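BUG-164 | component: ligand-complex export | severity: low

The export step for coenzyme A jobs runs without errors, but we want the raw record kept on the ticket for reference. Input record follows.
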Amino acid sequence: MSKIEIRYQRLSDAKRFFEIINNPNFIYLDIRVKSIEDERLFLSKNKERRKSNFAYNYTITLNKKVVGSIGIKINQHRPYIGEIGYFIDEAYWGQGITTKAVKLVEEIGFKKLNLKRIEVIMDPKNKASEKVAIKNNYKKEGLMKKFIIKENSYQDALLYAKVL
Ligand SMILES: CC(C)(COP(=O)(O)OP(=O)(O)OC[C@H]1O[C@@H](n2cnc3c(N)ncnc32)[C@H](O)[C@@H]1OP(=O)(O)O)[C@@H](O)C(=O)NCCC(=O)NCCS
């Protein structure tokens, strides 16, 4: 039986995240990391991000093996709103891992972080990400015009949300 869990990210996850993220097939993910050292630096700031109620980042594990990442970013103007973001190693796509991880992190968001509203935002072409939101019963609220800046142009994004 495969077991999907989430836990706080560790500095020792840096090498795996670096490998997972630097995948040319991650066309809808804006994050690019230059080196394992840069990834370690990013991870080293997670504690501070939690302390300042800015973001809560988790490692997704499958039978204790690192397969991806999921986090909730808190809206700094409206701290009752969080936004979930995620990525999974391509070798593990299509197994329902992110769908389950969203359930786990959403529970933290609503029960521990006292959020009233959780959003998932994606490129309209990112069908896998949209499906993850739909499978978790997030409701489509619309298309946000010129929401993302990518390669020097403003692009639209889909907004999905769940409210308590
Ligand atoms: C988006 C992502 C995290 C999904 O992870 P995952 O673990 O494969 O997701 P799940 O298996 O839980 O669900 C994906 C669903 O999308 C479906 N799907 C995948 N590609 C699809 C496509 N091109 N069109 C329609 N559906 C698609 C899968 O079949 C699956 O649905 P199913 O369970 O009904 O078969 C993963 O593709 C990824 O890491 N992508 C790169 C990073 C990224 O884009 N992150 C999101 C930024 S908003």
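Assignee comment: Attached the raw record above. The chain has five helices and seven strands.
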